[in-house]
Design a protein that fits this description.
alpha+beta, Alpha-Beta Plaits, 9 helices, about 40% helix
């Protein structure tokens, strides 16, 4: 079950703080709205919502804004001219790498135009719905601070119903990312907490079922530039790619 995610590592190493506070607030608020729509407005029974609220509070979003986002997600607050919808876009980067993009927008035409411009600039193609979606599946991911006894941790995960885990490095800490079925995310997270493992986060992610190897530095640079450009767009919530970089390329990027 154990493994190491080089892409996860390099993604965290190159992550940067967005200088525009308002943009961060908007993205995190939309994450709360999405979490409510996918579950309930009660954080105690919706771990995705709890995680989104925790991230919003850590970023300094006021409680009033958080409550407003929850109300929007549950349909209690219907503001004229504030019609947000969730859309999934799909496309290809250089080297045939598949990209799955989740957006929340109040203007489909604007979002599609922004995405198309980013793809065109960095050698990619925005595709039709369904062109790459079959290459990904949604998984529940629970992030846990590195356990002291990995054998004991593995045994417990098997009993709890988790499927796999891998170690990644984040902020000079080793994190175990536990993968489980989306329907089991809440159960596995609760079980880990009950055994006093330090749970840092729980979320639903898209995971590529197959990966495309990129060994060419020029292609790697173009792909990373494309992903950065997509993630910087106001309407984009997440970008997932089924890429695996060669060690030599990773070293150069790092």
């Amino acid at each position: 079950m154990a493994g190491h995610s080089k892409w996860a590592n390099i993604k965290r190493q190159k992550a940067r703080v967005d200088a525009k506070k308002g943009k961060i607030f908007a993205r995190l608020s939309r994450a709360i709205i999405v979490a409510v729509r996918h579950g309930s407005a009660d954080p105690s029974g919706n771990c995705q919502l709890r995680s989104a609220i925790d991230k919003a509070k850590a970023a300094g979003i006021p409680n009033d804004n958080i409550e407003r986002a929850i109300a929007k997600g549950s349909g209690q607050l219907d503001v004229e001219g504030d019609r947000w919808e969730e859309i999934r876009y799909e496309g290809y980067g250089v080297g045939g790498v598949a990209l799955l993009i989740e957006a929340m927008t109040d203007n489909r035409n604007r979002t599609a135009a922004d995405l198309r411009a980013a793809f065109n600039k960095y050698g990619g193609n925005l595709g039709e719905t369904g062109c790459v979606g079959w290459m990904f599946q949604q998984r529940g991911i629970v992030s846990v601070l590195e356990p002291e006894d990995e054998d004991q941790f593995l045994e417990f995960l098997l009993e709890a119903g988790a499927d796999s885990y891998e170690f990644v490095e984040e902020d000079n800490q080793i994190i175990a990312e536990v993968s489980t079925a989306v329907t089991e995310l809440e159960v596995v997270m609760a079980a880990l907490k009950a055994q006093n493992f330090q749970v840092l986060d729980a979320e639903i992610r898209w995971i590529g079922e197959t990966s495309v190897a990129i060994a060419d530095p020029t292609q790697a640079k173009a792909l990373l530039q494309l992903m950065d450009a997509l993630e910087d767009l106001d309407d984009i919530q997440s970008v997932t790619a089924n890429v695996e970089f060669a060690d030599s390329v990773l070293a150069g990027i790092a």
